[in-house]
Amino acid sequence: MSSLWTAITSSLNPLEKARSLPTDGFKNIETSQLVEEEELPDYRADRFYPVRLGGIFQKRYQIVAKLGFGTSSTTWLARDLKERKYVALKVYVHTSLVHRELPCYGHISRRIADSSHRGRGNIRWLLDSFDVVGEHGKYAVLVFEAAQMSLRDMKLVFWPDGFDEDFVRGAITELLRELDFLHSHGEVVHTDVHPGNMLLGVYDNNLLQKLEEREFTSPVPRKVVSATRTIYLSRLMRPREGPMLLSDFGEARIGPGPHGGDIMPLEYRAPETLLYIGWSYPVDIWSVGLTAWDLLEPKRLFTARDEDGDLYDAAHLAQLIAALGPPPPEFLARNPERRADFWDEQGNWLGLAPVPDLRTMEALETRLQDKSGFLRFIRRALTWMPENRATAKELLQDPWLTGERP
């Protein structure tokens, strides 16, 4: 009966016809010029699956535009010929040894089924997954609901001086709702919260048709590397209103922990990760504080670099001291061996990097006439002691977000 019903419904909903994308009319990029993923420090071509515009995966997902790339994957806009809508395909490198994203989504989906928490609506949802085999190995592919662009890219392209304060309030409110769901209901530590993983979703999926149509009117520049590999430039579109979606659970951890190991972008690393102490949900709250800062301000609060631009942990810790004051002795006591690399037994800074002048939060915050409420919010998220950070639920009631006077 089920097979007969499948045959009937399939005949009633035939696959949408695939389109033939242009094969000329685009700019050819010189082979000597590095573009997109080639500019990554550890780039190796064979690690990345050679996705082609117009190509079809699983006999249903036709690639129509490149959306972006990272060290572990490339992301593409595709037309789902079966469901007749746009989706996003994340194609992992074949050298990814641990795939946390798929089991994490399986865990979260079970928690969502038992919850009515409004924060669950801010998860970028996983629709499908499969593997593809290439010349150099097997590549995992995850299919997500389509979105527009990240808040990091929006800021970079359209608002380089920072978003308006009201926009930041709205984005952080949605982020905190999502984290409250993940922490209190999902028992998940995201570990990689930053504007690059906050995506502007779409209320109308057809909005993304503009990206597909642009490939016909103005084919994207590309670099032909070989007969089997072409590197395309990513496409952007002017953003429209949409929900904020937290994405990329590739480094998420299930359970409260404490967990160990390197996590977070270098400039976003929380004090407990720098001191090699077990970590849990508060690392996400630290990231909320830095995310709010980065959305509002043109320059980062912490660069993890010294005045010469050199990147190292002592420079990072020195900036933390400048902004937050010295760490409490009880925090340093949690890993005496690591403490000894930077502080003496009395907790005095050894000076492996100078504590920079004029890097207080008050000095670095440049855009608000009344900065007191914003800085109070930031200080509730950025504390040396993880247990002293406010929870996502507590921050949602913060006067800076709610508009109330403290």
UniProtKB/TrEMBL annotation:
Keyword Transferase in record: yes
GO biological process: regulation of mRNA processing; spliceosomal complex assembly
EC identifiers of the protein: 2.7.11.1
Reaction(s) the record says it catalyses: L-threonyl-[protein] + ATP = O-phospho-L-threonyl-[protein] + ADP + H(+); L-seryl-[protein] + ATP = O-phospho-L-seryl-[protein] + ADP + H(+)
Primary enzyme class: transferase
One Pfam family of this chain: Pkinase
Organism: Aspergillus pseudotamarii
Annotated protein name in UniProt: non-specific serine/threonine protein kinase
Chain sites annotated for binding ATP: 90
Domain Protein kinase span(s) in chain numbering: 61-401
GO molecular function: ATP binding; protein serine/threonine kinase activity
Top-rank lineage group of the source organism: Eukaryota
Keywords carried by this UniProt record: ATP-binding, Kinase, Nucleotide-binding, Serine/threonine-protein kinase, Transferase
